Amino acid sequence: MIFEKEKLVSKEEILAGVEKMNSFGVRTTGSGAQRDFVSYLKDEIGKMGLSTYSDLYSFDRWKEVASSITLHSDNGDEAIEVSSAWPYSGETGPLGVTAEIVEIFGKHLNYLPASGKIALVKVHDLGEIPSGLAFNQRKALPEDLHIPEYYKGPVATSFVNVPFLAAAKLAGVKAVICIWQGMSKEMVKGQYLPFILNYQGVPCLWVCEEEGEKLLQAAKQKSKVTLVLEAKHEKRSNSESFYTVLKGKNPDEAIIVNTHTDGVNCVEENGAIAMLAMMKYLKQCELERSVIFVFVTGHFRLPAFKQNDIQASSKWLKNHRDMWDGKNGHIKAVAGVAVEHLGATEWKDVDGVYQKTNDISAELAYTGNKTMDDIYYRSLEGRTLVRTITLKGHNFLHFGEGQPLRNVGIPQIGFVPAPDYLTTVSEDHEMSKFNIDLMYEQLQSFVKMVLLIDETPSNQLGSPDPYSLILGSVKANENS
């Protein structure tokens, strides 16, 4: 089926959708902002004449109320700027905790010297860990684009080099201050990280390297600080996942298109806005297969929502086997497309200054096999803004909400650009780093992907390749 751009909603309508999403506020899992966004999405889908089907969940929610660090010294009190709070770390009362600060060494495990005190922990950028441990590149466009040999940035750092707060709790540490290393103050400001761990039971705040140096020097004088991290606990906070279906001629086969509705800025996560536009376009088409649009919650509270997986869509898949497994009269999902992080520009630290380095953040896309890889690159034809890298799942790692599809045997395209501000909470929702022209071109590619998949026979779509292992390639592989 030929893509007809004139049937697509306008770029102005997409921008209005992103701005509407921003208007609800920071959409962390279970927040009122997320619930309002979900209500908006369901209303828009209802206007198309489509029904939605919801799964309602409850979980224990933690929300920061206030945070601060005050350094006490012979020269008086000094406010130390907090970069952000560690989500679900712990909390203090409104007066905080006051104690001596102690620098911790030894791979973030040796907390005993800080028992009854406040620990200072340096968290270094991933400058010496090869990217090939996490990534295996298939192809790229332009062809000379490749994964950096050493992948840096706050998101990866917080996942890999994260200090063990559980050890701090066991050692009787009153609180922890994590000090970002090798990243600018502007880059680390407002990072909602890490979001993949259970409640830790120890209050923890992040500070930038410059502020951290003040604390490290003060620790040599056995100075004290007062750390405040007030947080609100909501028992049985509500959140929901939902889906809708565009029915095709063949009721037995389907394509799954998924994203998540929780997020912290205009890029993370705007996939749902793109999916509304995809629905409006595809509703005008005579589809061979049904298209199931899935909007999940829990991406920013994974410990409460994942099911034998590391992404939130695994819970929806577990609850709705009748929509994908093809057994006992169930629908067979022949392919999937995960829609995340559209319109992202690239910002990096250059000589210590956080700045825009490209109009396009490298588009990382996992492609389940050669057929899906070919479909992905065909969907890029005609675009003027392209910097894309396709990947294999590697060492059982596959970032983004496409992984649960891949792990149950559905060949998929998982689109997950990863700018360094992906998890940044800011007043402008990171709109200063957003490119609407890029998002609009990416949206066109997503529509083309679904159309190309829909016209491809099931036996050609195949199944996902096995995970590659050990050290992956960070350059294009002609035998992808």
Helix proportion of residues, in percent?
10-25%
Tell me the overall shape. globular
One letter per element, helices H and strands E, the order comes to HHEEEEEEHHEHEHEEHEHHEEEEHEHEHH
Number of helices: 13
Poorly predicted runs of 5 or more residues: none
Strand content: 25-35%
**C-alpha Rg, in Å?**
23 Å
Biggest beta sheet summary: 15 strands, mixed
* Extended strand count: 17
Alpha-carbon distance between the two ends:
26 Å
Structural class comes to alpha/beta
Mean pLDDT: 95
What does this structure look like?
- This protein has 480 residues and is an alpha/beta fold.
- Helix content is 25%, strand content 28%.
- The protein has 13 helices and 17 strands.
- The chain has a 15-stranded mixed beta sheet that branches.
- The longest helix has 19 residues, at 436-454.
- The protein is globular and about 75 Å long.
- The mean pLDDT is 95.
What's this model, at a glance?
It is built from 13 helices and 17 strands.
Give structural attributes.
globular; 25% helix; single chain; 480 residues; alpha/beta
Structural topology:
Elements (H helix, E strand, L loop, with lengths): L10 H13 L8 H16 L5 E21 L2 E5 L3 E2 L11 E7 L14 E7 L11 E6 L12 H7 L4 H6 L4 E7 L3 H4 L15 E4 L1 H12 L3 E23 L3 E11 L10 H12 L6 E8 L5 H4 L7 H7 L12 E7 L7 E5 L2 E6 L4 E5 L2 H10 L8 E5 L10 H5 L4 E4 L20 H19 L3 H4 L19
Parallel strand pairs: 4-5, 5-7, 7-8, 10-11, 10-12, 12-17, 15-16
Antiparallel strand pairs: 1-2, 1-9, 3-8, 4-9, 6-16, 9-11, 13-14, 15-17
